[in-house]
Request: fold
Amino acid sequence: MTYFVDRTMAETVDAWLLRHNRDDAPARFHGPCRPADLTVDLLAAVHTHLLRELATRVDPLQGEEGSSPGP
Reply:
């Protein structure tokens, strides 16, 4: 399986890593803030998780958090 990793995706994952590893020493990160063992597959998995989490919080049709479509 091949993934296209764009800049937005990489920045989103960078932000997630910073949030969840904020107590780690900065030397642990390589590049903007990615661990050396962060593979494309892991990057895609984290991004997919973030998109699913966002989708559960915001209904794009209603524009409100936690709203659900009507009957």
The beta strands are 58-59, 64-65.
